[in-house]
Design a protein that fits this description.
- The structure holds two protein chains of two kinds.
- Chain A is mainly alpha-helical.
- Chain A has twelve helices and no strands.
- The radius of gyration of chain B is 21 Å and the shape is globular.
- Classes of the chains: A mainly alpha, B mainly alpha.
- Chains A and B meet through helix 3 and helix 9 of A and helix 3 and helix 9 of B.
Chain lengths: 283, 280
Amino acid sequence: MSEPAAWVIAPDAREGFIGRAREVWQYRRILWFFSHKAVQRLAAKTHLGYFWVFARTLGPLAIGSFVFGSVLEVPSGAVPYFLFFLTGQIPWNCFDGPLIRGSRGLEGNRALLTKLYVPRVILPLGQMAAGLVEPAIITLVYIGSLVYYRVNGGVWHVEATPRMLASAASVLLVVAFAFSLTLCTSVLQARARDTRFALRYVVTFWMYFTPVIYPISLVPPGIRWLVYANPLTAPVETFKWGLLPGLEHSWGWFAYSVAVTAGTFALGVWYFARSESVTMDKI
Amino acid sequence: MTERWEVSARYPGAFATLAEVWQYRRLLRFIGDRALRRMYRRTVLGWLWLFINPLLPIALRAVIFGGLLGAGSNGIPYFLFLLAGTVVWDVFASSLLWATRSLEMNRDLAVQIYHPRAILPVGNMTPTLLNVGLKVGVLLLAVVFYTARDGRLYLRGDIGLVWALGALLLALLFALAISFFTSIWGETARDIRFALGQFLAIWYLLTPVLYPLSQVPEAHRWWMMWNPLAIIVETFKWGLFGIGELYADALSVTAAGVFLFLTCGLIYFARSEARTVAQR
């Protein structure tokens, strides 16, 4: 007669960064599902639907470029201010949208978390997709206005050069940075409601301290390093440099931003993994 | 002989509603208190938000718009200029946002005891007065500071202060008028609140808080003056510091418009309250 088999109840072997990353990959169809749902939710339960999504994006663009360009007369170099403003808005919205929406990932799916297992990180990641809708709309407007200036002014303000690759890299860097922060903020927000207020403030003012609506050349040279210490400055500036003529940027500070992003990512992963086992039950 | 009882819904008129709000004025404090507690529940910083909320943004905006972007300020220190504009704007914007949530926040109250519904938007506005009082305090401190520094009194000491006070009141009434509509809509549709927040962000940029109206290019000034808040803000700053000018015609149109709108709001509210309460 053989011994009865021993039953061991232990958590799945999901430990370690590689293990977790592989798990997310295994669950990728759920990630797709959550992203899809998050985008749909942008327009759900509003009377205007997707029209509202467009109006909400375009209204601030029109008014903002009028106030900053015509009233405050912020210099924009060789190109019309509207174009300059839009160029800054694209990378900025790639940060702001994913961060704000991704932070709601855990809080908004509280009910779901107690019912079934999904790798937790899928929830903020899926929500982040909704934040990328606005920059996509702005990019469309951007292309439209380039054509407009070509037809009316006879010049392409943006020329296809290899520098565009730098712009693409900047957008990726900005999204990666947003994701790294989301790893922390989504946990914090699930625990304390005021994270949302605080985040909204921080992000609003972060924009003013990033050269989005003004060129970096407006900042007095003596304190420019202070603005560059903000890890978003270099990618935003590089993005604009890659598309528009006559702007400056610095690869050195870009490398700095990459390093900060990598550091934040490591910190975010550590914090998220640590909180996952401790607090997910509490929220 | 049997008595006949007739049970029917009342449709009080606009002014009967107002009179009733006055009768129940002791509830105001209770509602305001409740709103405050509700807002800061489950937050870590709690009551500190009451202070962070108004003060930090002003300081940061002063650095960016006054320092870096060089916005004009009609010849007084930019911080003072911004602070004065922000006081009026916040009286308007934050009381509007809070009042809009009033019916939705106090749903449970509505089925428990009788109170005139119109007291809810008014009561929910009271926490913002605390906020504004704080800012007025900072404004006075700033005036004292700049007066001591420059040896020049920026504050006007004459009848202008009455105008400034009137402008504040007008901003408050305008917010109340709008909230008579938005609180009814916001009770059933939550997105009204979010939409309003975004709408206010744009409105803020179009209102001469960050810059004086005189800095707006001549070609655009005429349409910006159709914004009631622009006139109210300019009047406040004119009354307080004697800067800019008093647009007397535009102000009287604005004031008349606000009162008309308030009356419409009251009528709409009084008509809808019976309906919305029955629907829940």
